[in-house]
Amino acid sequence: MKLEGVRVLDLSLFLPGPHLTMVMADHGADVIKIEPPSGEPVREVGLKQAGVTTWFRNTHRGKRCIVLDLKSEAGKAAFAKLVEWADVVVEAFRPGVAKRLGIDYASCQAINPRVVYCAISAFGQTGPKVNRPAHDLAMQADTGVVSLNRAPDGTPAMPHMPVADMCGSLMAMSGILMALLRREKTGQGDYIDISMQDALMSWLPNVVGPPFANGRDPVIQHERSWGGNAMYRLYQCSDGRWLAIGGSEHKFAENLLGALGRPDLIHLCHQPPGPVQNPVKEFLAETFSRRSLVEWTLFLHDIDVCWAPVKTLTEAFNDPHTAAREMVWTDPDGGKHLGIPIKFANEPGRINPALDAIGASTEAVLKELGLR
Questions:
Q1: What are the tens digits of pLDDT across the range 57-98?
Q2: Of 11, 84, 206, 228, which sits 20 to 30 A from 236 (CA to CA)?
Q3: Range 7-203+340-368 has CATH code 3.40.50.970
Q4: Would you kindly state where each structural domain of the chain is located, as residue ranges?
Q5: Pairing assessment for the beta strands 30-35 and 64-67 based on DSSP bridges
Q6: CA angle 248, 250, 251 (to 5 degrees)
Q7: What are phi and psi of 361, to 5 degrees?
Q8: How does strand 190-195 pair with strand 116-121?
């Protein structure tokens, strides 16, 4: 597998760090998860299958879990030996905590100059907000993303995806892999400062037109990405289900409106998003309200237009296409795992469903290090 031989120390908790190190484990990395004596919190967060939470199963499979008290001399000594062994260290403490514990990048670099050290935090290691705590919701709010997601009455709605956590995870993994690639030429490791807010902001190139070009906030209901375009919008069917028309290219407007007998409206879809397209929105809303989602599924099947039913999570994960892409995998104990999204032709990733109990690998790892 692609990361076979790469050795990772994971000091992080919850989602961004554990997710990225699990992806590395799926592709062959040897990941040692260092838990505090109280354990990884997500062991007890949410629903369980076969005695294990789905959150823990889908962020910690294939890792060796050890417990170290990093405030004790014995814990610090064991950590130092692990740093000698490691290629990558991932931590997600508040800025300053790693230094107080003596496990910061400078301390690790002194032990192992080749180590790649990645620190994930809410606001990064510099700036006025450096010491503010935050989880995903606060990150999305402070970045302006919550303000983009409005309920019909205009109030901001709760986001339903942990996008700050997840884009922080993926940006961190990208940085780690770049640093490892560069190390092949220089022999030197590096320090990576990942701010979840920075990562989330970097994901907004298609929506920053109004503030960047005009110095204004977007008018949500008029913007292309949030319903201002008739061909990029949600519509309700007669049975209460919804469908998404999700492609605003001219050809799709021509194909759909032609099939619905209203080619006279096509020219409006060539206009900028906003009120000028209201006649098309009104026509489509009234038209889709006449039939059920099943009927529209049959009607739209052979029309070249971007669309999709608004599915529930259960429907989405039971979809035959999801099965064909192997995005749900069931282990021998009946526990369900999210599949591997990075699909290599050569040396594909492989799910190792092993899940350590708290500290299950502590003695074995310490023996490997010569500390037992």
A1: 999 999 999 999 999 999 999 999 999 999 999 999 999 999
A2: 206
A3: no
A4: 7-203+340-368, 222-312
A5: parallel
A6: 110
A7: -105, 10
A8: parallel
Q: Which of 80, 71, 63 is nearest to 355 (CA)?
A: 63
Task: Kindly tell me the burial class for residue 9, based on how many C-beta atoms sit within 10 Å of its own C-beta (0-12, 13-18, 19 or more).
Answer: buried
Cα→Cα distances 330→50, 340, 342, Å: 12, 13, 18
pLDDT per residue as tens digits for the range 109-164: 999 999 999 999 999 999 999 999 899 999 999 999 999 988 767 889 898 899 99
Kind of pairing between the strands at 88-91 and 7-10 = parallel
Q: CB count, 10 Å around CB of 260? A: 15
Residue tagged 């204004």 (tokens) = 216
Q: Between the CA of residue 71 and those of 17, 74, 90, what are the distances in Å?
A: 21, 9, 18
Tokens of 275: 């009120």
Phi, psi angles (nearest 5°) of residue 200: -65, -40
Residues in the chain: 372
Which CATH number fits the domain 222-312, given the four candidates 3.40.50.720, 3.30.70.1660, 3.30.1540.10, 3.40.190.10? 3.30.1540.10
Listed in sequence order, the residues at least 6 apart from 225 whose beta carbon sits closer than 8 Å to its beta carbon are 206, 207, 232
CA distance linking residue 207 with residue 221, whole number of Å: 13
